[in-house]
Amino acid sequence: MAKWRKKPVVIEAEFYQSGMEDGYACYELNGKFIGYFDKNGGYPKASRIPAIKTLEGFHEISEGDYIITGVQGERYPCKPDIFKMTYELVE
Fold first, then answer.
1. pTM of structure
2. How many domains does the chain have?
3. Which of 20, 37, 65, 73 is the most buried (most CB within 10 A)?
């Protein structure tokens, strides 16, 4: 089987901070998943986890995650350990 190397692409990334989310993953107090809601929606008594909208749908994000903006303006989360193994700072 042939081996391939990923082409170098420059992306933008920043640490997630409160306010960068597009909405929330909502769970009932017993832990049952209810659904994803934009910043103005959801259930007030449900536990809410920040989420961003990606090309694949909503993904939960947490403190320390990187929010990556791809070459076509798409956004997606990345855990810090994976980010550090995959990307290096462009000087």
1. 0.78
2. 1
3. 65
